[in-house]
């Protein structure tokens, strides 16, 4: 029996996407974005302002002096970097709930999402793309469908895993088979309801590369790759483990060789700890020791 | 008591109440070595095979790479009284996520030491544990299966 009607009904109760983050999404990669425009977006949301200052002062950005005002943060970090922080701190609220269908750890999905955003950003840098903030945002939001689908996946977890194990299918396919819909499709719907920019919506919808249209935008391929690399890194795995199909063609498409990926994984390993502090996932840095960042 | 070995990290112990644990190995590799006579054990969690990738990072943290981390692992265990010929070496991790490994082999290339027990490759996520009192070494996967190595 399909759960589609029930799942669609739950979309009706979707909370709003935080307003400030929504406005910031529209500004990502806008050419000649002025500092004043950006300050206008955030200044009326004190929680986000506080968050922005906290994050900007975290070790992740390695700024030498303390930042006290939004203006100062903008000057030191630049508009695109600040947009990333605004979107991430807006999204934190959405990701505050546990997603037991996918992660047994409470902040699992947030951790995965942040990791994917950072990985996408690193890949964009490696490929010398100008749109790093777009890549970060798409990585951060690619799995929003899991926010809604989690409860249904949790109910049917055993049945989904059985399909994974007996038929060797990746998890999202098994999800579709048992529930009638997968988290990428639901995420696409959410993006529509929330009025995300079209391109972002399509990344969310297609990040598992399950139809020919998926291959028409490089950003979709990049997010797919970031997702795979984050899983390979292994530190924030969900209940589905590594039941995932990576497409080697994507590597070829971007002209990435093994050594390039090793470098990216290494770099990711180095920023990972600071980044967790950055996004409020752990209290303070420990573990990896790396001085370089950027 | 669990002693957690982080990413690019190394821990050694001769205290029988300790269990060395490294969580969620993907393409990374966990190496556990143990001397049953001295009851000394150590565990390394490294990310990549060769330090030539980035020498300055290898210098900051040798545990990131196999070629700089593994010798350290052995040395640290010797300093607690372990002896080379008695050491048992077990390895886990090195998963592959891209279907055809000829394209991308970090997982496989990570795996290049002489060993007595292993659970390597495939697409499983593994947690590796070593009990210092007994030398018992086991792997737990995300779906809660447990294998002794
Ligand atoms: Fe996904
Ligand atoms: Fe994902």
Description:
The complex is a heterodimer of chains A (about 290) and B (about 150). Chain A is mostly helical and about 290 residues long. In chain A, about 65% of the residues lie in helices and about 0% in strands. Chain A folds into two domains: about 15-95, no CATH class; about 100-294, Hypothetical protein af1432, CATH 1.10.3210. Chain A has helices at about 5-10, 20-25, 35-40, 45-55, 70-75, 80-95, 110-125, 130-140, 145-155, 155-165, 170-180, 185-195, 200-205, 220-235, 250-255, 260-280. In chain A, helix 4 (about 45-55) crosses helix 6 (about 80-95). Chain A starts with a helix and ends in a 16-residue tail after the last helix. Chain B is α+β, with helices and mostly antiparallel strands. In chain B, about 15% of the residues lie in helices and about 35% in strands. Chain B is built from three helices and ten strands, in the order βββββααβαββββ. Chain B starts with a strand and ends with a strand. Residues about 100-105 of chain B have low confidence and may be disordered. Classes of the chains: A mainly alpha (about 290), B alpha+beta (about 150). Bound molecules: fe (ii) ion (2 copies).
